[in-house]
From TrEMBL:
Protein name per its UniProtKB record: Nudix hydrolase 8
Gene Ontology terms, MF aspect: ADP-ribose diphosphatase activity; metal ion binding; NAD binding; NADH pyrophosphatase activity
Gene: LOC107764717
Alphabetic keyword roster: Hydrolase, Metal-binding
InterPro entries from the UniProt entry: NUDIX_hydrolase-like_dom_sf (IPR015797), Nudix_hydrolase6-like (IPR003293), NUDIX_hydrolase_CS (IPR020084), NUDIX_hydrolase_dom (IPR000086), Pre-Nudix (IPR040618)
Gene3D superfamilies: 3.40.630.30, Nucleoside Triphosphate Pyrophosphohydrolase
């Protein structure tokens, strides 16, 4: 923010007037010391009193005694007869500490939020007015669990729920009088299932402790959900290890399923992966798995619950085709994109790989 401290008599100002300005700045400095305000000035010299200064917020203790008045202090600098001077500019409104995002909005610093609800209310209102003047768009406000009493205040001021995690709730506010362009909360959950087959043509299968009555007695492949910031190919290896104790190596994504409104109105992506076993000894996870074993492929396929389900049957058909080298899945390739300069994973078919000796069907 840029402000100009302009005096119409600046050009003809005498030394005595200059001394008065310095005294005024000194008196403001005394106020600063009296009220315990810490100033972090950014200096920018200008001749005369027409100044162009950089302003910086001071930190404040929102839980301090009510007898200790808090100010937001800015600084400006100027020159009088070639001498650099710094003045103080007090404002009676605060602005929440926040950083700009790349889409014209702001992200509030959750670590610098006032703890006092009354102070938070005033600061939030002043901040919204300030950001509106600045032409900002979306506001992201993360409120930690220890500041949960601030949630109803933010909602009353117009913020909406976006998502929540174990340690916080995220709220958003759209400032412009136009359709909101903020992205919605994550709409999908991602699951994985691991087809692990050994050199005896046996499939690694489990029975879960907690399952729908319709699936009672079913021997199924190990399955689970991908963790936050986890790759599909590493997540499926982890899930198999956790449930059965078997170490595996990822081979391919053979197929994936997309279903709507699976849990809490979220969509579900489920990736069926082919894995190679690296160990043999099964160690069952007692928390969620009732039993695990190596089952002959033919016995696994002939289970009534699999034969009676079109989805299961198709997955088995794909799996058998892959074993017969009549089908190729999607293998892992990690590449860097210039869009974000980050390493990401691309899954694609490699039918021209002589080691696979398979074709798409």
């Amino acid at each position: 923010m840029e402000l100009k401290y302009v005096d119409s008599k600046a050009i003809s100002m005498s030394k005595s007037v200059g001394m008065e300005i310095m005294k005024f700045s000194s008196s403001l400095l005394d106020l600063k010391l009296k009220f315990g305000v810490n100033v972090a000035p950014k200096f920018c010299s200008r001749r005369g009193l027409s100044t162009k200064a950089s302003y910086s917020r001071t930190s404040y203790d929102a839980t301090s005694s009510v007898t200790k008045k808090n100010f937001l202090v800015d600084t400006f600098s100027y020159q009088i007869n070639g001498t650099n001077r710094t003045g103080l500019y007090f404002r009676d409104k605060w602005v929440l500490d926040a950083s700009d995002d790349e889409y014209g909005g702001v992200i509030v610093n959750a670590e610098r939020l006032p703890s006092n609800p009354a102070i938070f209310t005033s600061v939030l209102r002043a901040s919204l007015a300030h950001w509106k003047v600045k032409g900002k768009k979306g506001v992201w406000l993360k409120l930690p669990v220890d500041k949960c009493d601030l949630v109803p205040i933010a909602v009353k001021e117009g913020f909406q729920y976006h998502h929540s995690e174990k340690g916080h709730v995220m709220l958003t506010y759209w400032i412009p009088d136009e359709p909101c362009m903020l992205p919605s909360n994550a709409s999908h959950q991602v699951g994985v299932g691991g087809f692990v087959i050994n050199n005896k043509n046996e499939v690694l299968v489990v029975q879960e402790k907690h399952s729908a009555p319709a699936l009672s007695g079913l021997w199924k492949i190990p399955t689970g959900f991908i963790l936050e910031s986890e790759e599909i190919f590493t997540g499926v290896v982890r899930e198999v290890k956790e449930e059965t104790g078997i170490d595996t190596e990822f081979a391919e994504v053979m197929a994936f399923r997309h279903a709507q409104n699976v849990a809490f109105e979220k969509s579900d992506l489920f990736f069926v992966c082919l894995l190679r076993p690296l160990s043999k000894q099964i160690m069952v996870d007692d928390l969620e798995i009732k039993a695990a074993k190596w089952m002959p492929l033919a016995e696994f396929v002939e289970q009534p619950l699999i034969q009676g389900d079109d989805m299961f049957k198709k997955i088995i058909d794909i799996f058998i085709a892959r074993l017969g080298k009549r089908y190729c899945g999607l293998s892992v390739h990690q590449l860097v994109s210039k869009f974000d300069d980050k390493l990401s994973t691309l899954y694609f078919n490699t039918v021209d790989d002589p080691d696979l000796n398979c074709q798409a069907s």
